[in-house]
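Predict fold of Class I SAM-dependent methyltransferase; 255 aa.
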Amino acid sequence: MPETSVARFYDELADDYHLIYSDWDASIRRQGEVLDALIGQDRAAVLDCSCGIGTQAIGLALRGHSVTGTDLSPRAAARAVREAARRGLSLRTAAADMRRLPFPDARFDTVVCADNALPHLLTEHDVRAALAEMRRVLRPAGLLLISTRPYEDLLRDRPSSTPPQVHRATEGGERTVTFQLWRWHDDGEHYDMEHFQLLPEDGEWRVEVRRTTYWALGQRRLAGLAADAGFVDPEWRMPQETGFFQPLLVARTGE
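Predicted 3D structure, encoded as tokens:
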């Protein structure tokens, strides 16, 4: 994975990331509620190893969990701390690669890797390394929660774009527009993504275009890699079942 380019993508997006949501605060609360129900215990020690600006980490902290966040983007992780503080929460974060987590063994009850972050890893070797690290920092019977795009469907259809999303950052505020263009590689599994944001500025539109690459890692393959890493009974839970916005891979470490 080209670490610097992925970190740069999210560093550049950090200030505007909340604008991809119609209501970011509502998404924080909703995602925190769903993940909390899956965790199923009070005050769990949770690592969000792709915390971004804090959507899932803050949501879980609001539910009473002790959350630590890491992200490849220092700018995103720093914003997560500020956003948590604005809500009266304490959130510890660090800039770190999920393939090299800076924590001792068996430190956490739950590891979360949401929002299609794992597919930034472009080779099986790198995915195995990340899963091994998540397994290492989990306690016995620890819980793993990974969300990705619905790649089984996307690998069949190989779309070239996403529909434009039009949102208002505040009630009655100015509109913003977000959409993506995808260019599939010849292998049919990897794709380059151009992320477009149209932002109002002085009566005109400011256009931000940010680029990154993903591996469309199918669900069966990812579940198999999780099992190879030592996770028990990995299974996919679909949005219609959980209420989460993406499919979730749920697995545990052994006792």
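Residues 22 and 172 are 12 Å apart (CA to CA).
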